[in-house]
Design a protein that fits this description.
259 residues, mainly alpha, 2 domains
Length: 259
């Protein structure tokens, strides 16, 4: 088991290094996530292999580019470490299985969404739309998730948020929720089924409210304060992915407890 845990951690970190490239280039419609190879975003100097080792290179270089000495964003080692830990947790949850591979891709997509939405307040269609199709197809291979539950998750996930967004717009004449959030929840419903949606919506709303109140106090913009909602949806989805049985048990206890 230790071998698989070490391998999954290292594999996750390597994938996390690639995700940093995706995060940097995907918001630019004209950029490729494949070419050119890894290079310093500031001086454009290509990186040697020893400068591209996940987490370790950042520490070895003391957080600066070897060529131009400009500081390297802390995002790079954090994303690599986050994906390494997600990979390890997925192995402990599903061991070596089809579910591990499918949810590894799902978790990687959510991690990319979190960072891109934080930086740019957008959720690229190139992640959510293929993710909806992939999630529905994966339901044919995942134990415990039928294609009917996946399809209903897509329809309910996208439909609920579309109705909320439309209702808010009709009431205020302002856009309160972007189309990216609607597609993201549809993708989450595709991979996790409609059963995950109540918790994901409740948890993301709670987290968003807490952070939103803090942002309102800090920015002093009142109701004009804007924060991306995608990261809260993604975090709530990951929580359900790892703790679904406990969440279901707690929900059942709360609903059936004597009053």
């Amino acid at each position: 088991m230790l071998f698989f845990e070490v391998f999954s951690f290292i594999f996750g970190a390597i994938v996390g290094s690639f995700l940093n490239v995706v995060i940097l280039r995907l918001p630019d419609p004209g950029a490729s996530v494949v070419f050119p190879g890894s290079h310093c975003p500031h001086c454009k100097t290509p990186l040697h292999w020893y400068e591209n080792i996940p987490v370790a290179s950042f520490l070895f270089l003391r957080g600066r580019c070897r060529s131009c000495q400009v500081k390297i964003s802390i995002q790079y080692p954090l994303v690599e470490l986050a994906m390494a830990l997600l990979s390890l947790f997925l192995l402990q949850r599903f061991f070596v299985s089809m579910a591990f591979l499918i949810y590894f891709v799902f978790a990687a997509a959510l991690l990319v969404v979190i960072v891109i939405d934080l930086y740019h307040q957008i959720i690229p269609d190139r992640i959510s739309l293929p993710g909806i199709v992939l999630g529905l197809a994966a339901s044919l291979l995942l134990p415990g998730l039928s294609w009917q539950d996946s399809l209903l998750g897509i329809l309910c996930g996208g439909g609920i948020f579309y109705a909320i967004a439309m209702g808010y717009y009709l009431a205020t004449k302002r856009q309160g929720m972007g189309g990216g959030d609607i597609k993201l929840l549809a993708m989450i419903g595709a991979f996790q089924g409609w059963q995950a949606l109540p918790f994901v919506i409740f948890c993301s709303s709670l987290l968003g409210t807490i952070v939103g109140v803090g942002a309102m106090v800090q920015q002093k913009k009142g109701g004009q304060t804007r924060i991306p909602y995608g990261p809260f949806l993604a975090v709530a989805s990951l929580l359900y992915l790892f703790f679904d049985q406990r969440i279901i048990a707690l929900t059942h206890w709360y609903l059936t407890r004597p009053r």
